[in-house]
């Protein structure tokens, strides 16, 4: 995935965009990872979380399995 260029590219929900712009001063680089992931669209059909969260989960799960004694 390509990085979002602005907060408007994270989600199409106008209320969420307005709230994030107010909190983060319209600076996409200041958006917290969790907040950005929860707002991120589009989500794949049947998924409760975004592509970014899924990619992070897969990376971390494989690391935990490899590190398990």
Overview of the structural elements:
- There is one protein chain.
- The mean pLDDT is 86.
- The protein is mostly helical and 69 residues long.
- The chain has helices at 14-24, 33-39, 51-67.
- The relative contact order is 0.14.
- The chain contains three helices and no strands.
- The protein has one domain (7-67).
- It is elongated.
- Helix percent reads 40-55%
Span of the ends, CA to CA: 33 Å
Overall pLDDT level: 86
Q: How do the helices and strands follow one another from N- to C-terminus?
A: HHH
Summing up helix and strand content along with how strands pair, one would put the structural category as mainly alpha
How would a crystallographer describe the biggest sheet? none
Instruction: Assign an overall shape.
Output: elongated
Q: Low-confidence segments, ≥5 residues, pLDDT <50?
A: none
Tally of distinct domains? 1
Brief digest:
With 69 residues, the chain is mainly alpha-helical. Helices cover 51% and strands 0% of the residues.
Descriptors for this entry?
0% strand, 69 residues, mainly alpha
Produce the secondary structure layout.
Layout: H1 14-24, H2 33-39, H3 51-67
């Amino acid at each position: 995935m390509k990085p979002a260029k602005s907060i408007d590219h994270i989600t199409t929900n106008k209320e969420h965009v307005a709230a994030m712009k107010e909190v983060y001063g319209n600076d996409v680089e200041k958006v917290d990872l969790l907040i950005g992931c929860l707002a991120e669209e589009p989500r794949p059909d049947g998924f409760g979380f975004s592509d970014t969260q899924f990619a992070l989960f897969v990376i971390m799960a494989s690391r935990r399995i490899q590190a398990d004694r």
